Automatic annotation (TrEMBL):
<feature type="transmembrane region" description="Helical">
    <location>
        <begin position="428"/>
        <end position="448"/>
    </location>
</feature>
<feature type="transmembrane region" description="Helical">
    <location>
        <begin position="223"/>
        <end position="245"/>
    </location>
</feature>
<feature type="domain" description="Amino acid permease/ SLC12A">
    <location>
        <begin position="43"/>
        <end position="475"/>
    </location>
</feature>
<keyword id="KW-0812">Transmembrane</keyword>
<dbReference type="InterPro" id="IPR004841">
    <property type="entry name" value="AA-permease/SLC12A_dom"/>
</dbReference>
<feature type="transmembrane region" description="Helical">
    <location>
        <begin position="151"/>
        <end position="172"/>
    </location>
</feature>
<feature type="compositionally biased region" description="Basic and acidic residues">
    <location>
        <begin position="15"/>
        <end position="29"/>
    </location>
</feature>
<comment type="similarity">
    <text>Belongs to the amino acid-polyamine-organocation (APC) superfamily. Amino acid transporter (AAT) (TC 2.A.3.1) family.</text>
</comment>
<keyword id="KW-0029">Amino-acid transport</keyword>
<dbReference type="Pfam" id="PF00324">
    <property type="entry name" value="AA_permease"/>
</dbReference>
<feature type="transmembrane region" description="Helical">
    <location>
        <begin position="304"/>
        <end position="325"/>
    </location>
</feature>
<feature type="transmembrane region" description="Helical">
    <location>
        <begin position="359"/>
        <end position="377"/>
    </location>
</feature>
<feature type="transmembrane region" description="Helical">
    <location>
        <begin position="70"/>
        <end position="89"/>
    </location>
</feature>
<keyword id="KW-0813">Transport</keyword>
<keyword id="KW-1133">Transmembrane helix</keyword>
<keyword id="KW-0472">Membrane</keyword>
<protein>
    <submittedName>
        <fullName>Amino acid permease</fullName>
    </submittedName>
</protein>
Length: 506
């Protein structure tokens, strides 16, 4: 039984239940045992909010100190690459929208090892990102309460978000909708206030605010082009999670309509929330007045002379960090379930609660996120840098797999071996190769920077774990990897499918 057949088996069981209940609308029917509870407005806001988090609100402070105003150009260049990655993902999603997403496509087009490694690496990425986000959230709490140890705040946030993720996917989508709405409203508000300072000259920063601040202090490239290049990994981290819409495919009410719309909003999202906000902030306040480890948004309001505004923004960025961590717990449970359904993870992770959530997978992920509490206890000052570096390299693996799978899929579709997607990647395969080359450049630059080099020390260790565990699993259950792509005639997976269907029905 292939992974695609596993999905079909679950959907067939869903169809049978739908016929018994008189519900024949496949758009509303559960997929892969999940409930299709995410509507268009929720998918759109998850897509928007997924790209607005710690990387922009906190990581930009360090990037500004390294690149100055040229950071704007770095965001623009990376933004183009991100759009190409998302269009590649969109082409795959329209070919076959599944919750396993990147792991499923890697398994189908690149082989079982790549599906296995992608599923576990993306799970690790979100665990590490969750640690990053609770670390950032703990930093934001320090803005109001200096006496609260950073690790205590991280512990409280991890536990609370775990409890939130035990709810239904529909309520999860609603919470994420409002989380994202807060972030979007806040950034638009900051941009409007900044424009007011520039044009009307009010506040303490009114006399010095000017667009000329973008080049007046040692030029647009104050540390040279090399300084700008060294910020690319920070910028790439800021965009990690834009691919989260792919994980929602199995729980979207109308994936073939909502997902392309979400993906096509990427350019204006990047233009407004990243490039637009940075242009305004760096025009209002010279880049030399920002410091690493401090949110440039909070600092900008402080310089303007609106301390209440700075407090509001600090609350918003706290919400952003917690929203991203919440999304991480959502996606990790789904990725573990996809691995379990394909016989590449513990079978227990395939079970769903009555409300359609993968309880055991989410619980295991939350337990690993508690490692972040220990990191915040041992190294409170360095925690963010360490976890950002490793999160970036593991997150970029998912992007590499998306592009590689899309290249293989497009080649097969052009030969007539597979149906063509209705949402094709523009300029492929050349644009796919360009995006892959850019990711390779960023990885090389991470090795040059001593602050990010730690991730390249850890990545080979994780790769070795993946290779060894894969061959151990293959030796124990060879039927899982009997074909060149995915499992054939897999009793364990069939049993898992039956259990998942039974759990969903219960």
């Amino acid at each position: 039984m292939t992974s695609k057949q596993v999905t079909s088996a679950i959907e067939d069981a869903d169809d049978a239940r739908s016929r018994e209940s008189g519900d024949t609308d496949r758009t509303e029917a559960p997929a892969e045992g999940y409930q299709r509870g995410l509507g268009n407005r929720q998918i759109q806001m998850i897509a928007i909010g997924g790209a607005i988090g710690t990387g922009l609100f906190l990581g930009a402070g360090k990037a500004i100190s390294k690149a100055g105003p040229s950071l704007i150009l770095a965001y623009a260049v990376v933004g183009v690459v991100i759009f190409l990655i998302m269009r590649a993902l969109g082409e795959l999603l329209m070919y076959r929208p599944v919750s396993g997403s990147f792991s499923e496509y890697a398994r189908e087009f690149l082989g079982p090892f790549f599906g296995y490694a992608t599923g576990w690496t993306y799970w690790l990425f979100w665990v590490v990102t969750g640690i990053t986000e609770v670390t950032a959230a703990a930093n934001y709490v320090d803005y109001w309460w200096h006496g609260v140890p950073q690790w205590i705040s991280a512990l409280v946030f991890t536990v609370v978000l775990y409890l939130v993720n035990l709810i239904s996917v529909k309520l999860f989508g609603e919470l994420e909708f409002w989380f994202s709405m807060v972030k979007v409203t806040a950034i638009v508000g900051m941009i409007l206030i900044g424009i007011g300072v520039l044009t009307l000259g009010f506040s303490k920063a009114g006399d010095t605010a000017s667009v000329s601040n973008l080049w007046q202090f040692h030029g647009f490239f104050p540390h040279g082009v090399g300084g700008t290049l060294m910020t690319l990994q920070i910028v790439m981290f800021a965009f990690l999670a834009v691919e989260l819409v792919g994980v929602t495919a199995g729980e979207s009410k109308d994936p073939k309509t909502t997902l392309p719309k979400a993906i096509n909003t990427v350019p204006w999202r990047i233009g407004l929330f990243y490039i637009g906000s940075l242009i305004i902030i760096l025009s209002v306040v010279p880049w030399t007045e920002f410091s690493p480890g401090v949110s440039p948004f909070v600092a900008a309001f402080g310089k303007i002379g609106l301390p209440l505004g700075a407090g509001i923004v600090n609350f918003v960025v706290l919400t952003a960090a917690l929203s991203s961590c919440n999304s991480g717990m959502y996606s990790t449970g789904r990725m573990l379930r996809d691995l379990a359904l394909n016989g590449q993870g513990p079978k227990a992770f395939a079970k769903l609660t009555r409300s359609g959530t993968p309880l055991l997978g989410t619980s295991a992920s939350a337990a690993f996120m508690l490692v972040g509490v220990w990191i915040n206890y041992e190294w409170p000052s360095d925690a963010f840098t360490y976890v950002v570096s490793f999160a970036t390299i593991s997150g970029m693996w998912a992007w590499i797999m998306i592009l590689a799978a899309q290249i293989r899929y497009r080649a097969k579709a052009d030969r007539g071996e597979l149906p063509r997607s209705g949402f094709r990647m523009p300029g492929a395969p050349w644009t796919s190769w360009i995006a892959l080359a850019f990711i390779g450049l960023v990885i090389v630059l991470m090795g040059v920077d001593k602050d990010t080099r730690v991730s390249l020390y850890v990545a080979p260790v994780w790769a070795a774990i993946m290779v060894v565990s894969y061959y151990v699993l293959k030796a124990r259950t060879p039927e899982v990897f009997a074909t060149g792509a995915v499992a054939e005639a897999l009793p364990t997976t069939q049993a898992t499918v039956a259990e998942a269907a039974a759990d969903a029905e219960a």
